[in-house]
Structures are given as structure tokens and as C-alpha cells.
Amino acid sequence: MEALAELTRKCDTVSAVFCADNTADGYQYAMEHEIDLFLVDIILDSRDTHDVSGILLVDRLRKEKRYEFTPVIFITSLVDQAMNAFHNLHCFDYIEKPFDLEKVGRVISTALKMPLCDDRDCGVFYYRKDGVLYALNIERMIYLEACFRNVMIYTLDETVEIPYISLKYLMKDLPRKHFIQCSRNVVVNRRFIEYADKVNQVVKLRNGKVIKIGGRMKKGFFEEL
């Protein structure tokens, strides 16, 4: 796992790598972040002779709309199962153990260049309120904060309140290259980050706002940032 992580970090386009040795942690990372490539070992529990939990994880991820087309590379010593998963789960490629590091590096680099079918980078964020469709300039959105059952959007020009909606739901329509989640309740625009303090677990925005970084998200936030 560490060897594959190190190979991936060397790719020019990579901003963060998340490692998990079980399906629960892997799925949690996928839900909390926007993942561009999955490297999944078919056998995650070597003590179980019938284990194919890696395939089950990818099958679960494929049911999430945002991961319908995300490239997946299977790591395996079981070629038959890899080929079956390759076709049924529409995976990008598979790597046999023991693997050639140079070859693996090329496969990872190629997979990361695949288009992600992401239509969110349009520069405008649309939302509906009281039956009316509104538009916000993404570059002027500073941060979003969940408050009770509403989400507040703070921009350079105004503060917008969207009732009866979750932050997680809104995140699906925000471009991943601009926005990053720093706690369960707050998502910030990278463009407005003045500095991030790992010791005190806070991020200061250019408008003077200081936001606490959630303990569970600290590692992922700083790696992605």
C-alpha cells in the first residue's frame, strides 16, 4: 500500500493520497472527499480465503452518482476475478502481484489523465429558493456553513441563506478544484485561504474569518490542501 501511495504522489497532478486497509475507511474517505482515482486490492482480508471485499467496495462506490465513471485500478494475484471485475464494474485496468513499479507508475499516470465527466466547472453555482432559480459567481463565494437545517453561503457581495438543504447535497454541485471541506459544517473556497494553522487546527480566510478545522478531517484537509 505504501509503495503504491508513493508512486501515486509522484504524479504531477496529484494533490492528496488517502490510504485505507479496510472497506469502511476507504468508503468514508470517498464520501468525505472527491476522489479522482481508486487503487483497490481485491483481497483486503487475507485471513478469509473467500474474501473479495475490494470488489464489493467498488460495486458500492459505482452506485454513487459521482463515482459512476471514476477510474478504478484493481490490485490482485487472482487474474480471473480481476478480469470479471474489469468487465462488470467498468474498471480502468488491473495490476497483477507481484507488480512492476515502473509499469504501475505508467498505468496510474494514464488513469489520472482520464476525463472525470465533471460538469461543475462552469464558474456559476445555481440554486433554487422559493421556486426561483438564482446564480452565484463561484469565484466570489468565500465559504459555506451549515446552520441547523439551512446552509449559509458567504460571498464578497452578500450572504445567501438556502433553507432545508444539507451541505453534503450542495457539495455535489461545487467544483472540487475550488472548494474544500474543513469540518462537518464548513466548506471553504481555496482562493480565499490566507493561511492554515496545523498546530492550532484553524484556517484563516482573507476576509478575516477564522474557522476551526474538524479533528476527524484534519489529516485529509491538510493533505488535500
> Can you tell me the CATH class of the largest domain?
Alpha Beta
What topology, given as strand order, has the largest sheet? 8-7-6-10-9
What would you give as the CATH superfamily of the largest domain?
Response regulator
Order of helices and strands: HHEHEHEHEEEEEHEEEEEH
What is the third-level CATH name, the topology of the largest domain?
A: Rossmann fold
CATH architecture of the largest domain: 3-Layer(aba) Sandwich
Gross morphology is elongated
Q: Total number of helical segments?
A: 7
Number of strands: 13
Return the domain count.
2
Radius of gyration: 19 Å
Low-confidence blocks of residues: none
- The rounded distance between the terminal residues' Cα atoms is 22 Å
Mean pLDDT: 85
Strand portion, in percent? Answer: 25-35%
Descriptive account of the structure:
- This protein is of the alpha+beta class.
- It folds into two domains: 2-112, 3-Layer(aba) Sandwich (Rossmann fold); 124-224, LytTr DNA-binding domain (OB fold (Dihydrolipoamide Acetyltransferase, E2P)), CATH 2.40.50.1020.
- The chain has seven helices and 13 strands.
- Helix 2 runs parallel beside helix 3.
- The protein starts with a helix and ends with a helix.
